[in-house]
Design goal:
The chain is 53% helix and 13% strand. It is of the alpha/beta class. The longest helix is centred in the N-terminal third of the chain and has 17 residues.
C-alpha cells in the first residue's frame, strides 16, 4: 500500500490496531475498534508502579510455567468438538445462534489447526507479561489519530460501560452503539455496521 491506512479491528484486534497507531503512527491514518477489548479496561484504574526486579522475574517465571503446564493440547481440541463451544459462541451474540453449524465450523476450524495451541499459549503469555505501556489504558491517551469505537449494546464479553472508560482516556474519540448486538456487531448487523463506518470515514476524511 505504501501509505497510511485506516485500521479496523474487532475485540483484541482493536487493541492491535491501537498499538500500531501509537507505535507506528506514520502508517496509520485512523483506528476503528469494534469493540476495543483489553483486560486493563475491565479493572479499576491504578497508577503503574515499577515492580522490584525479583518480583518481575518471579511473575514471569510463574506465568511461563503455568502456560506451559496447562494441557492446552488436550483442552483446545476437546472444546472445539464439545457442545460447550456453542454456549461460548452464544455469549458473543445477542441473537440466538445455537444450532448454527456454519458459525460453529467457522470458529472450530482454526482451533483444530496444528499451530492453534502454540499461538494461544504465546498470546496468553504475551498478554500476561506485557508492560503497562502496551495496555489500552496507557495507549489511548497517546493516540493522535481519529478513533471510532463501535459497540454492541448487548455485549456480554466487553460491556458497553467499557466504552465510557475509553472515551475518558481518549476524549477525541467517537462512539457508535448498535442496538440488539453483542460482541460481534459486524456479524450480527453487517449493513448498519458498514453504513456507520462509511459515514464516519466520509465525515472524517471527506
Amino acid at each position: 500500500v505504501q501509505q497510511p491506512v485506516v485500521l479496523v479491528g474487532h475485540s483484541l484486534g482493536g487493541l492491535v490496531a491501537l498499538s500500531c497507531a501509537v507505535f507506528a503512527p506514520r502508517w496509520v491514518r485512523a483506528v476503528v475498534a469494534a469493540p476495543l477489548a483489553d483486560p486493563s479496561l475491565l479493572r479499576a484504574p491504578r497508577r503503574p508502579g515499577r515492580r522490584a526486579p525479583w518480583l518481575r522475574r518471579l511473575w514471569r517465571a510463574v506465568v511461563t510455567l503455568l502456560c506451559r503446564l496447562l494441557p492446552l493440547e488436550l483442552i483446545v481440541p476437546l472444546l472445539a468438538r464439545s457442545p460447550l463451544l456453542e454456549l461460548g459462541i452464544q455469549l458473543a451474540y445477542s441473537s440466538p445462534v445455537l444450532g448454527d453449524r456454519q458459525l460453529r465450523r467457522l470458529i472450530a476450524r482454526p482451533a483444530l489447526r496444528p499451530t492453534a495451541v502454540r499461538s494461544l499459549r504465546a498470546m496468553s503469555t504475551a498478554m500476561a507479561l506485557r508492560p503497562w505501556q502496551a495496555t489500552a489504558r496507557a495507549l489511548l491517551p497517546r493516540l493522535q489519530q481519529p478513533l471510532l469505537l463501535i459497540w454492541g449494546a448487548a455485549d456480554r464479553l466487553v460491556p458497553l460501560e467499557v466504552s465510557g472508560q475509553c472515551q475518558v482516556l481518549q476524549p477525541g474519540s467517537e462512539l457508535a452503539v448498535l442496538p440488539h448486538c453483542g460482541h460481534c456487531p459486524h456479524d450480527e448487523a453487517p449493513d448498519p455496521f458498514n453504513r456507520l463506518l462509511l459515514r464516519w470515514l466520509t465525515r472524517t476524511f471527506g
